[in-house]
Amino acid sequence: MGGSFEVIRSRTNAVLKRARNVGRGKEAGFVLIEGERLIRDAVSAGHVPEVLIAAEGQLEAYRDLATNGDLATRTEFRVCADTLLEGLGSLKTAPGLAGIFREPATTAIDGLPGLVGDGPALILGVAGIQDPGNLGALVRVAEAAGAAAVVVAPGGARPFGSKALRGSMGSLFRVPIVLPESLGSAVERLASLGFEQCVGATRGGQSLRSHPFSERTVVWMTSETGEMPAELEGCTGITIPMRGRVESLNVTVAGALLLYAAASGATGRRELPAILN
């Protein structure tokens, strides 16, 4: 964006058509990222966009990206009329900047030992989360709690859809994502690596306040309905004590409490964080 650019003024432009297709999930291996903050998070994490599209009226705010290392030589920069960024992806309000990126690399379950080593480690496991915003928010909490990786079992939201990426506020660009072939294979592999496997249970599990979390712990979070997959029935159920007439918590809120409690074991601290006592 260092010089002048021909401004795209037609919705039928090939670059915009491709961006819409990527935004609708029609081009495997690519993702459309909308908004300056998320794009800058991706770039700072080492991801290089194939294409960046800037709104004409906000071009000056993004000129620095043209001189950002690899972007200057590896990214196609385009400028379009402001209104043409509407409808590229899932945002209701047109962003000032959109980009086409390759999906971040993921790790197969056999690559997990290289991520967690032999010492204390915390992992988030996700099985059946349907809302991509919830999935992204859980990954954000996992990063904040110090998780070494997030295991996403098949059958739920895609980790790199636009809603999941926005919900993660950039965490999906930084936290290693492990994609096993099945939930059962993930449970078996984690057991072989010496991990205690806990699962959030709405009721009937051990109390969050009293459970002695291991130094190597996986916290599994299941679907928003609370349905427990058969593959996780052998895991230790952990229930969050609740007062009043509240029967359950949002899955991301519950996940945050469980992850921070489990982090007390994964970091070698046996006491719960004060906020959970």
Automatic annotation (TrEMBL):
InterPro entries: Alpha/beta_knot_MTases (IPR029028), Ribosomal_eL30-like_sf (IPR029064), rRNA_Methyltransferase (IPR051259), SpoU_MeTrfase (IPR001537), tRNA_m1G_MTases_N (IPR029026). Keywords: Methyltransferase, Transferase. One of its GO terms (biological process) is methylation. It is an enzyme of class 2 (transferase). Residues 122-260 form the tRNA/rRNA methyltransferase SpoU type domain. The keyword Transferase applies. This is TrmH family tRNA/rRNA methyltransferase. Its EC number is 2.1.1.-. It holds the Pfam family SpoU_methylase. It comes from Saltatorellus ferox. GO terms for molecular function: RNA binding; RNA methyltransferase activity. The keyword Flavoprotein does not apply.
